[in-house]
């Protein structure tokens, strides 16, 4: 388990991280979101024991990261934002070196290196000097390095940045495979990625925690949540009038009309669900509903709203 309490980091007068507290349980893939300069990297570096906190405390599986960084780091695989590697080493040689530092020797060391080369699909560049690797391969070598000691906690700072679509998918699949037995915290600017792999998302802005919850829950805060698109066989103006009179409908926007089929967008009051009311109204008028789609909301809308206003979304228990 991870526990962070009142974490603060000051650089001079500037608070890069401003009183952040949260807990994460095993089995969580936590997406860490926020605009450029929000404090994601700073938070992750403190959690990984590479940057001392100004104040506040961090525990990783019960170990205080400030008091005992070396012991805490055995629990952690940390993938930094930039890819600091030893350029003159080969990919395989570098991983052997990391395994050695982590205390593995002989057959055990080789087994672990083979395993991460395989899981990160680096077999083909094993003997290639790191300085000659493309960006995506460098990034994956960096990821392989975090996995060598099979730590229960992974802190990944933009792990899929710079990867091609196929490699992004490979990394997402790896994360999903490992998720069950670990805590994985990853920062990203790719919101689809959060929806695809994260069971929980936190949004920070100007160093403060602004939203925390399951992606589907956060999306419920977006303006488009529960907007209903209806296709109905009905007379044009009448349909708009009847649906517009449903109590939870704020307004009706006609989309298209052809051959007696109306496509309408119904905007709800207060993000209420409209489906039942619409079906009932259509039945009363003997109109056939041929299609209906309720919007599940959009994370990018929530992101913009949260990071440009004083709104806060707390995690429900
Ligand atoms: N070593 C440092 N000295 C001074 N200021 C720093 C230092 N490191 C980070 N900062 C500042 O702290 C703030 C947060 O930076 P941080 O790198 O944590 O943001 P981020 O959320 O990771 O942004 P990005 O999405 O661009 O990676 C920024 O204003 C940054 O300039
Ligand atoms: Mg960053």
Structural notes for this entry:
The chain is an alpha/beta fold. It has two domains: 2-219, 3-Layer(aba) Sandwich (Rossmann fold), CATH 3.40.50.300; 228-294, MTH889-like domain (Alpha-Beta Plaits, 2-Layer Sandwich). Helices cover 34% and strands 29% of the residues. It contains eleven helices and 14 strands. The protein has a six-stranded mixed beta sheet with strand order 6-7-8-3-9-10, with helices on both faces. Helix 3 crosses helix 4 (106-119) and helix 3 (91-101) packs parallel to helix 5. The protein is elongated, with a radius of gyration of 25 Å. The two termini are 17 Å apart. The relative contact order is 0.13. Adenosine-5'-triphosphate binds next to helix 1.
Strand % is 25-35%
Mean pLDDT: 94
What is the highest CATH level, the class of the largest domain? Alpha Beta
Low-confidence stretches: none
The share of residues in helices is 25-40%
**End-to-end gap:** 17 Å
User: How are helices and strands ordered from N to C?
Assistant: EEEHEEHEHHHEHEHEEHEHEEHEH
Cα-atom radius of gyration? 25 Å
Throw out a few tags for this protein.
alpha/beta, 2 domains, 6-stranded mixed sheet, 4-stranded antiparallel sheet, elongated, binds adenosine-5'-triphosphate, binds magnesium ion
């Amino acid at each position: 388990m991870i526990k962070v309490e009142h974490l603060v980091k000051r650089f001079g007068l500037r608070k890069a991280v401003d009183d952040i507290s949260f807990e994460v349980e095993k089995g969580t893939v936590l997406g860490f979101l926020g605009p450029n300069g929000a404090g994601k990297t700073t938070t992750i570096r403190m959690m990984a024991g590479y940057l001392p906190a100004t104040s506040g405390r961090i525990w990783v599986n019960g170990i205080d990261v400030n008091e005992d960084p070396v012991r805490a780091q055995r629990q952690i695989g940390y993938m930094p934002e930039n890819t600091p590697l030893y350029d003159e080493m080969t990919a395989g040689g570098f991983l052997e070196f990391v395994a050695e530092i982590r205390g593995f020797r002989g057959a055990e060391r080789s087994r672990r290196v083979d395993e991460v080369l395989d899981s990160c699909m680096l077999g083909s560049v094993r003997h290639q000097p790191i300085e000659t690797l493309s960006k995506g391969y460098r990034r994956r070598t960096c990821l392989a390095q975090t996995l060598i000691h099979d730590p229960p906690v992974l802190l990944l700072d933009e792990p899929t940045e710079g990867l091609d679509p196929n490699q992004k998918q490979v990394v997402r699949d790896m994360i999903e495979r490992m998720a069950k037995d670990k805590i994985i915290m990853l920062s990203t600017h790719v919101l689809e990625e959060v929806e695809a792999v994260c069971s929980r998302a936190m949004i920070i802005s100007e160093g403060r925690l602004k939203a925390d919850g399951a992606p589907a829950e956060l999306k419920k805060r977006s303006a488009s949540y529960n907007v209903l698109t209806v296709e109905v066989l009905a007379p044009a103006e009448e349909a708009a009038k009847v649906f517009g009179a449903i109590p939870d409908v704020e307004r009706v926007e006609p989309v298209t009309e052809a051959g007696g089929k109306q496509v309408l967008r119904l905007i709800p009051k207060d993000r209420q669900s409209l489906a039942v009311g619409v079906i009932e109204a259509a039945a009363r008028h003997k109109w056939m509903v041929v299609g209906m789609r309720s919007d599940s909301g959009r994370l990018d809308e929530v992101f913009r709203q949260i990071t440009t206003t004083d709104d806060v979304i707390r995690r429900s228990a």
